[in-house]
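Whether sequence alone determines local backbone shape is best considered at the level of individual chains. Part of our work consisted of pairing the sequence of a single chain with a tokenised description of its backbone. This step matters because it turns folding into a mapping between discrete strings. For completeness, the protein is quoted in full, as a sequence line and a line of structure tokens:

_____
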Amino acid sequence: MTPPRDAGGTPAQRTSTGRVRVRGNDYRVLGPPELLTPQLTVSVVIPAYGGQDKLDLVLQGLARQSYPAELTEIIVVDNGTSPPLRLPGGTAARLVVCDKPGRAAARNAGLAEATGDVIHWLDSDVVLTPGAIEAHMRWHHAAPYVVVTGYIRFTEAPLPEVLPDDPEAAFEPAEPHAWIVDLVERTDGLTADPQRPFSLHVGGATSVNARLVAAAGPMDDDLILGQDTELGYRLAQAGAVFVPEPRARAYHLGPTMRMRDKQPIDRVSHAFVADRIPAYRWLRGHPARRWKIPYISVVMDGTAGYDTVRPAVDALLAGTVPDLSVLLVGPWERLGGERRAPLKDPDLELVLVHGHYAHEHRVRLASTEQIDPSVPFVLRLPPGWAPGEDTVARLLDLARDEGLGLVNVLLHESADGVVAARLERTSAFARARLVADPDEDLDDAVDTVSGVAWVEGESYGFTTEPTPPTRRRAAYKARVEAQAEVARRADENERLRAQVARWKEESGRWRKSAVELRREVGTLRRQIAAANRAQRSLRVLVSTTMKRALRGRLGG
């Protein structure tokens, strides 16, 4: 097989174990085999509520798959149908009953029973074409951290009792899944640095490595809608690469609920997923409220002393990124309830930090580092250094704009070593752990899958002598706007000064021209006067000559 190549045409980087590293979401370097030697098992999980006639056709489609039946497990989850669903004779599927309502609960029940290397989510009204599962599995044989989604078309064709030999001819004409097609086309197949490739994870016909699901966790059955997208986000945080596979074709028997009621469904879904998916920034328009999953968590040493910890924490809380939490790590459990002389308490510094932030909702006090893996970014800040009001926002902009997995911030350098802060992208570090060689430095692995940069702390506003935070958050905005106005007026002043200088220069030229013009006019006036005198002399001469001539004639 031809070795996989990156987007530039050079051979893709491999680990010592032969695993290909994907940078960003450019899955093209994986180069899945055209001639597959199947080795991995797959569990097809089908949640179902009613629709026996459609389920029968779905199971017939699974029986015709080109992927080996002995490597395929089919689990149908009856989510409370009355009368209960039945499995047609001759099917290899197993039936599981889930009494808890909701598609997420049903999928989780099937997931608990699944034994395959790969989990293939399939809706009970989606019929796969014969090569669909094999098209999925080609990618899973190439890498253990991919999420593959097929192309679904929506058909209004009458339901046959038996699946035709050519389902594509029977179910056409059909409409494509327009939203997915648009997403794929405008991002060059999800390879052109898409901001949210996890949106491709839809429950209708998507497959994912079972170990990746175990790392991300099952579907959130507290959600009313949007469970598949929310799981897709957690899969991305776990290091997943998302692949659209056009050869994995399927037909949805009838329109979906979203196609019928998109706006009301979005209204319900957005009300819940805003708390859980920080990447959906437009759903978090409130300037100060707290969310279940913050956009960034800052980790600090809570034992560094009250006068050291407080300025940095207060600066973080007063910054322009309110979607933030602070984790102070320290032995808080040893602070007992016994009364002591406060100034003689050996744990006085801990007591002061604890007392100051115990009731601040954006600060957590923990004995060990506990960061939710769903948090997109983690900033590790050494003691004694405080950010400016816009420092965190600027670092986040840099990481997002450049697609970086790690931004190192040089704070101080001396003979004793380097003091640095670190902004880490959680998903990049998760991917790096999946592909790193046993003895490889994790930062080096992050550099290969996402990128690493160094910046100067001073240029980003870090200081050891922070100014007290302003009492109103609007003060920063007002100052920035005032500074921008001052800069604008300074530029305008310079422009006007330059224009005045040009006018003065032009005026000088005009004055010089006027003097020259006056001289020319004087010369012309003198020439005209001389001409007038000459004309008068000529008239006198002509008159005298004529008179003489007349007298001569008369006298003769």
Q: What stands out?
A: The radius of gyration is 39 Å. Residues 67 and 485 are 66 Å apart (CA to CA).
